[in-house]
Amino acid sequence: MAGSGAPRRRRDREAPVTDQKTARPLLPRLLLTGALSAVLVAGSALPAQALDVPPRPSEGAVQDQADLLSTQEEADLNRLIGQKNKDNEYIRAAVLTVNDTQGESIEDYSRKVATDWGVGDDGRNNGVLVVADMGERELRIEVADGAREVLSDGDAESIMKDELQPGFKNEHYAEAFTDTLTEVYDQANPQAAAEREARSTTIMGVIFGLVGLGAVVGGFLAWRRSRRTKKIREQADREIEQFQREHPEESITEGMRRAYHRYRQQNPEAPGLNATPGKAKDKDGVEREIQYAPTFQSWLPLYVMYPSLYSGASHASSSSGSSYGGGASSSFGGGGGFSGGGASGSF
User: Fold this and answer.
1) Is the Cβ–Cβ distance between 95 and 177 less than 8 Å?
2) Element (H or E) spanning 33, and its range?
3) Where is this region: Disordered (predicted)?
């Protein structure tokens, strides 16, 4: 009995030692696991990098960052949107062209821009944003929830396939936007579409009679406008190159170059002595007088301070009312409701 009890006492004394050896690394492992979990949770809670939303047009409803449109084409589109807004309460449309969507899908990017811009009327959510991404060659007609009552996803898909995609495939960008916007507004206002169709049928004979003359005159005007645009662009490039030679430490981005091209197209000559300076609101909503910049060197500091005012967009004059719609309501009324309605395409 005594001999059998001794081993039991040794095992009893040894048991705590064994438990201590196995338990000793357990606490550091628990601490390490907890620390790693905290790091992972903290990392997942970090906010994603904010999207650099393009500035909303200071006047009109077209932001042509990809530089697809001439000054006249952009003005024509703004005039079309302004007139349609005046005639049609169901839709408020805007246009954006970009060279990339900053890693976002065309759907997410369009939805975020439309929401940030406030396309549509507050409370009605009747906005439509037409987006062209030249980098990925993708297109999007983003339709707010309120506008979907008159412009369904199926309607947007048909307009995408029939109007927007074919025009971009043929590089007829202004025509593609014009036809797309016309269909968007007319789809929301069938009466206007019917009246337009009736007028078109009535004057069809006259159109055929004048088509030859119109083609000749139109071709000449297009050639003259193209030549003028080329000369202004070449002069702008020479000014930029001279500035870079004189200021090699300054970095001129491609976005600055495109913005100056548009500004110079919009302001090819100095205003007259008695001309009333135009005014526009900056990104903070403060109305400022638009100064004329005769050279790239004088334009650059103005652009750095107020990029939306000196990017070549048409600005409102000091008189009341809109210069693109004759007092028509704006496409930006604080609208929202962009939950993913619309259609996407590519070219």
Assistant:
1) yes
2) helix 26-45
3) 1-23
For residue 21, name the pLDDT band (cuts at 50, 70, 90). Answer: very low
If you ran DSSP here, which 8-state letter would residue 160 be given? Answer: I
- Assigned token pair, 330: 């704006």
Structure tokens at 98: 């970009």
Tokens standing for residue 281:
């609101």
The predicted model scores a pTM of 0.55
Q: DSSP character for 57?
A: P
Name residues whose C-beta falls within 8 Å of residue 192's C-beta, 6 or more positions apart in sequence.
87, 88, 185, 186
Secondary structure string (H, E, C) spanning 310-334:
CCCCCCCCCCCCCCCCCCCCCCEEE
In the chain, % of residues over pLDDT 90: 44
Helices 254-266 + 296-305 axis angle, to 10: 110
Which structural domains are found in the chain, ordered by start? Answer: 62-204+331-346 (3.10.310.50)
> 182 or 198: which carries more pLDDT confidence?
182
Nearest-angstrom CA–CA distance, 96 and 88 = 21
Token pair belonging to 57: 């047009």
